[in-house]
Design brief:
Length: about 120
């Protein structure tokens, strides 16, 4: 959300904080994740628009056109970016999976990306 928005003063965001506000979210999250989080109040939330890239949603948010619901660290919320991230409460978690063809040939950069993923996310 914009760093100068009144909601930015909160440590966490609850469903009631978002009722009646214009929201931006991926279509997949709006259909699958947000209903689990919002429960019976889902019908009081207003999807202003959906996006496939969080960066695109962040541009609308920077212009104060609505609030972006997305994963932490997908858009720049560093000091000076004009945006801040606030977690939802109760916490909303989603499982993500990466899949590819079994005998896929990858470019060198894709190989490095997969190696980094393995390093970053191995137990």
């Amino acid at each position: 959300m914009p760093e100068d928005d009144p909601l930015a003063k909160k440590k966490v965001i609850r469903v009631d904080d978002l009722i009646g506000l214009p929201l931006f979210c991926s279509e997949q999250s709006w259909k699958n994740d947000i209903p689990r989080w919002a429960g019976t109040k889902m019908d009081q939330l207003h999807l202003e628009g959906s996006f496939r890239l969080a960066y695109n949603g962040s541009m609308f948010t920077k212009e104060h056109l609505g609030y972006l619901l997305t994963f932490d660290k997908l858009v720049d919320t560093s000091s000076g970016s004009g945006l801040v991230f606030r977690p939802l409460t109760p916490r909303l978690e989603t499982s993500l999976y990466l899949v590819w063809k079994k005998y896929q040939t990858f470019s060198p950069i894709a190989e490095r990306f997969l190696a980094q993923l393995g390093t970053s996310f191995s137990p």
